[in-house]
Fold each of these.
Amino acid sequence: MTNNINTATSTSIKNRCMRLRSVPNGKIVKSDLELTEEPIPSIAADDENSGYHVIVKNTMASIDPTHRIWMNAKKDQYMDGVALGDIMRAITVGIITESRNIDWPVGTKVVGFGGICDYYVGIPEVTIVEKCACNTNNEISPTLELSYGGFVIGLTAWHGVNKILQPGSSGGGGDSNNEVVVISGGAGAVGSIAGQLSKTKGVTVIGIAGGKEKCLFMTETLGYDYAIDYKSDEYTISDKLKEYAPDGITGYFDNVGGTVTEAVLANARNYMKMAICGSISEYDDEWQGIKNFNMILMRRISIQGFVCTDHLDELSDARKDLYQLKKEGRLIFREDIREGIENYTEVVNLLFTGGNKGKLLLKINEQ
Amino acid sequence: MTNNINTATSTSIKNRCMRLRSVPNGKIVKSDLELTEEPIPSIAADDENSGYHVIVKNTMASIDPTHRIWMNAKKDQYMDGVALGDIMRAITVGIITESRNIDWPVGTKVVGFGGICDYYVGIPEVTIVEKCACNTNNEISPTLELSYGGFVIGLTAWHGVNKILQPGSSGGGGDSNNEVVVISGGAGAVGSIAGQLSKTKGVTVIGIAGGKEKCLFMTETLGYDYAIDYKSDEYTISDKLKEYAPDGITGYFDNVGGTVTEAVLANARNYMKMAICGSISEYDDEWQGIKNFNMILMRRISIQGFVCTDHLDELSDARKDLYQLKKEGRLIFREDIREGIENYTEVVNLLFTGGNKGKLLLKINEQ
């Protein structure tokens, strides 16, 4: 993806672009990125793509833990990282401002890999993933596709729970008695949906998150049975898991990895199923890994790592389920909207300090 | 399991028993075990079990890496460990020397959890698993059920390859092009069968083992495509894997864990399947674990830990396949028979230094 198209008509410098300048060393710092002002891209009539590509103005960006992974192109990852000098990748909602494409007219709100910038050249069905549902229904939030209705958040939670863990049916390798599902990052955007989906299957749900407020949110608002504060000095995660799941854990939805995952492995019931969609504790360059890896053998655990983009064919099924639950008031979802493209670094770091409360979004421009 | 039954008739002291005295601290040392002389167990006519239990004289014991796990009853494991003071657990072949059970007469050769001792009280279909095939066919080796025909060795390899990795069909998550299966412990008892079974499916097989001799054995005798010596100073495992599997590994049969597994994870193709039946590098009390655990997410890897005793219903299918391959000369299997119950400690340690050449067995008594 390149946002460097310059045409004869694009001379006005109004496109703010957050470009990656260096690979972060641990925490992301301001100097790892640079906010530049560049010409707004345009598509001239004589451009070979003039009837296909469109120009999109970003309104809202989804800020996700994977941004930290993307910032290190040299590291093994599930898709190409962002090269030094390129605009920081992000999934965004935006509005088409220039188009000769009759299927994608000016004014259409779209979801795509827009990046942290004001304007980008969108390629329908390539970098533009889909049209927003709010185009045809004013009652639908313009951020729906970045939150529980999106492939990054909603589909990830839905696939992990319904296709991998399958609580309440074959969850726990055929041992469906007193199933206990644990969600790490249980108050987060993906985790909070995964926990609530598991709850609808009638199993016990334990959420793990950092801080008293998030723990209260999990038990009082999301309806989890138990909450464990991984930052607490009063107990260990493993002791609490032993207390809440004395017969062992049957399903584990993992967003974080590291010591939290070690504690879950130490308390696994035989044949525990584990879905890994994130590993936020391991996104720095120093990897800690898992010390008790051999519990996978001892407890005959099955593990599936997965990435939402592999399962886009399930998106409509996932949405159907999630919209229905939301309509019935059985799905609570919070958004945490921050403002200003210039604040990108501070905002993305909230994910790693646990400072956000709900799905983190960055408002770049007005609707 | 107890071997402590004393009856009025068992006064002769001729039963040598290797009893666990302390949990090994790292390497197993002589003083962790004690060879005692005890009364030979017997079953008196008025014993309530006299028509059911039998007395078995052990002839050969299977020496397996799991012995080290069993020696630490306090550690999480897949079955109860051996308590301090108890006879060391081992699967053995033995011959029934006393019986009032018409289905299990004196002279029958049996496979069971006999332990490292001369005689034990066997409970048919509980501690005695089955009758040896050599009872009815003189051409069959009396050690068959401890080697490629047994549930610990043959079934483990067969289940891991045929039920989990499934090379040549859905192996590699649907990506069946140029499949590459890696076997750690590839010259060992289980690994050598797993590698040969994978070879029959037409995929590329890379074996990892320690030392030049084992590497030659894998390529020249077992028919592997490539061998990697994990003890070599001339290259790293990861560099060699990159060279032999430039498009990534699609299936991994893991016997060892630790740094070998890290190297395989670093070279996984998307959707790699991984079967874990052993973790021999982690059987000491200090666990090293896996640093690049997050490759499971990045490469969308699926992992299944498994233990042979969960899959005894597949034993006859596994044997059918393995016997046929052996008959056709397509399955090579080596045994390494050591002698003398008093040498148990030195013999079991061969597994951890890589000193054995083939399935390790300990002869306790003559047939």
Amino acid sequence: MTTSGTVTHAERIRATVVEYLAAVADGSGADIAALYAEDATLEDPVGSAPRTGRAAIAEFYRALEGSRRATELLALRVTGSCAAFHFRVVTETGGRVHEVEPIDVMTFDDQARITSMRAYWAPSDMRQR
Amino acid sequence: MTTSGTVTHAERIRATVVEYLAAVADGSGADIAALYAEDATLEDPVGSAPRTGRAAIAEFYRALEGSRRATELLALRVTGSCAAFHFRVVTETGGRVHEVEPIDVMTFDDQARITSMRAYWAPSDMRQR
């Protein structure tokens, strides 16, 4: 399916994941939610009540806005219109630094917007530095 | 939920993942399938036709039996009755060595048997050594 000069769907999905981690590090809740489809779902962590729709998703990420953040992609696998990736997120709020390395699973639409996100991690995976 | 002397569900799930990787490295198709619930499903890679039931799952893994194999767990996250993990699998068949590092997502029953497995990787992730 790869032709010189064209961008494959897998490449667009990879680009969205990279944009996502950049937005989690630097963006507002609305910036991050803009990478999602309008009717997307978010379940973070897996087992918690899912949030549906871009407004609820923006609200979820707004909690990050008061902290300094850094992200790093550790591993990314793309198959079909799905991705799974392992990453590190470090947040600093009021002098406290927390680090966690979740594994997220996402699905994407034809425009490589996120249609669902499920985050695999537990509070016991969180480290304070 | 953690009480001294008891084994939590998360710990049992972690043990099943470790057993799974040991069986993928050393076991028969039936050995690996024995870690699955009777009516479990397997989708490897994600996007391919799922296989249902322990017999179909044993058949899937039987393809490994002719090769020397090694596995290594790179990262594991457990939340509720779900796990996601990144691992390396190296197979040697007729002098050819292939290596791939998928991210797998599994769900588990109350006995920590695997009820579903979905493997995120693409043929382009496979390296020949």
